[in-house]
Design goal:
The protein is mainly alpha-helical and 66 residues long. The chain has three helices and no strands. This is Transposase.
Length: 66
């Protein structure tokens, strides 16, 4: 089937085997999004990106935002 849709077999298997990692990343992203919404709401919707980032870094100093 891979030749039919012009995809290398190795790319298909790499995509297929990454399913768990993608699902874990999606859960982590949703958790971060919930925290961002909470900070924004708690600030009476006055905090924007820089202030929210600063608060997140205070909570989780090792946080890497993507």
């Amino acid at each position: 089937m891979c030749p039919l849709i012009d995809v290398a077999h190795s790319n298909y298997y790499k995509w297929r085997d990454g399913r768990d990692a993608r699902a874990e990343r999606e859960r982590a992203d949703e958790g971060l999004a919930e925290k961002i919404r909470a900070i924004h709401t708690d600030s009476e919707e006055t905090h924007r990106a820089q202030r929210i980032t600063a608060e997140l870094r205070e909570l989780w100093p090792c946080l890497t935002l993507h």
